Automatic annotation (TrEMBL):
Highest taxon of the lineage: Bacteria
SUPFAM superfamilies according to UniProt: NAD(P)-binding Rossmann-fold domains (SSF51735)
Sequence ranges assigned to domain Gfo/Idh/MocA-like oxidoreductase N-terminal in this UniProt record: 45-117
Name of the protein described by the UniProt record: Oxidoreductase
A GO molecular-function descriptor: nucleotide binding
InterPro entries attached to this UniProt entry: Gfo/Idh/MocA-like_OxRdtase_N (IPR000683), NAD(P)-bd_dom_sf (IPR036291)
Pfam families: GFO_IDH_MocA
Species of provenance: Paenibacillus whitsoniae
């Protein structure tokens, strides 16, 4: 059997380097890479290819289209997500979208429309399918047994904070109907999510003085449970879930795309709620033209942190 060829697009974060050995162990060939220069300087892609024994460095997305069976989009400027995905969608090539899938309702709608039209799209955060989350899912706690929960992480509210939203959707399942900003304490934003069936969950995300693990405290009618994820297993858990769909071994997505992007919509509703004084925001009521999270500004800050400007402080 011919091995499926993977193309990596945008090498901005640590994910491409972390995914390569796992994909190879799973039997895939990492055939080509393309870097758009959002974070790294000229020449980085060639060094990355040499370091990871990748045979081809593409000078355009169309080169990746010609050489890859599956595309992985890893860029940290989520405003480029639809632009990067479009050539692959038009060519019928399956696409993995790294987290956050997108940062505005408009881009999420475009991606969702492509999925409805038959494009093979999936991705997102590994926290939704971590071993710890799956162990909780196996308990099959009935909704009427649920009391409350708290989950969170540090670093920032969206690029990293999206992991907390994903973890909570994994724990309680899809069906997030609304978000409401509750407070801002210790540099973090506290947001209450409400499910369509009435269950509620508090999320705390944003910058802290030190690193915080991915965690969740869960309370039911009969027990309490604490989760702290093992980060060393996250990428494999995610790739084990998405690769059968991306490779065509199954035609069923691991999660329907409209439910996958419920995670980003919840974060957008949380931001909008804070901007509107803590008003509860229904996910269905987020305006399509809402600006959302600024991917270009985040990418610039990410680049400046990695490559501090000469003569200036980050």
């Amino acid at each position: 059997m011919t091995r499926k060829k993977i193309g990596l697009v945008d090498l901005d974060t640590s994910h491409p380097a972390s995914f390569v050995p796992i994909l190879r162990e799973m039997g895939y060939e990492v055939a080509t890479i393309f870097d758009g220069g959002t974070v790294h300087p000229a020449g980085y892609a060639e060094r990355f290819a040499h370091q990871h024994s990748i045979p081809h460095v593409a000078s355009s997305l169309q080169e990746v289209v010609q050489k890859a069976d599956i595309a992985f989009l890893h860029g940290c400027n989520w405003e480029l997500r639809t632009e990067r995905a479009r050539p692959f969608i038009e060519a019928g090539i399956p696409v993995f979208l790294d987290k956050p899938v997108a940062g505005s309702p408009e881009h999420l709608r475009i991606l969702a429309d492509w999925a409805k039209q038959g494009a093979v799209l999936t991705g997102g955060s590994a926290l939704r399918v971590s071993d710890e989350v799956k162990a909780w899912q196996a308990e099959a706690i009935p909704p009427d047994e649920w009391v409350y929960g708290l989950a969170g992480c540090a670093i920032d509210e969206f690029n990293y904070g999206i992991h907390a939203y994903a973890m909570v959707q994994g724990l309680l399942g899809p069906g997030i109907a609304a978000a409401q900003h509750k407070s801002s304490q210790g540099g973090q934003r506290q947001v209450e999510l409400t499910w369509a069936d009435g269950r509620r969950f508090l999320i705390s995300v944003g910058e802290t003085k030190g690193y915080l693990p991915f965690y969740a405290n869960l309370v039911t009618q009969t027990t309490t449970h604490y989760i702290r994820t093992d980060n060393s297993k996250l990428y494999r858990a995610l790739l084990n879930e998405v690769m059968p769909y991306l490779s065509g071994d199954t035609t069923e997505p691991p999660i329907p795309f409209d439910l996958l992007i419920e995670i980003e919509l919840a974060a957008l509703a949380a931001k909008l709620s804070e901007e509107q004084g803590g008003r509860r925001i229904e996910l269905a009521d987020i305006p399509l033209n809402y600006a959302g999270y600024d991917g270009q500004a985040f990418a610039q800050s990410y680049r400046d942190a990695k490559y501090p400007p000469v003569g200036g402080a980050v």
